[in-house]
Amino acid sequence: MSIFGKLFGENEKPKPSSFWKNITSEKDLAEAVENSYHEKTVIFKHSTSCFISKTVLRNFEKEIEDIDQNVSFYYLDLLAHRSVSNTIAENFGIRHESPQLIVLENGKAINHASHQDISISLII
Asked: What NCBIfam families does the annotation carry (predicted)?
């Protein structure tokens, strides 16, 4: 592995932290939407092959480590589950981007951002 690979984790497959619930199917997405009627629900769409997406994910995870609100966090590996990502774009009328964060409340997207605009301020 090159020096840059070691620094930036080129060959590392990211391991989502334990607070993430994986979305791997339409059923998982439906559960996330249903959950949004009970508490804020966040969907993080991540491209596992993109350096920018990896960096944004790591930074976001650091930001939310000590969040003291009732929020559910969902993680979508969009390379493995692109059809689910397309369904999200269709259902919420939000153009697909990666990385992308979508905040749901009562079954509707109340906030969303991509790339460096992703931050905890979208949730609180």
From this structure: B_thiol_YtxJ
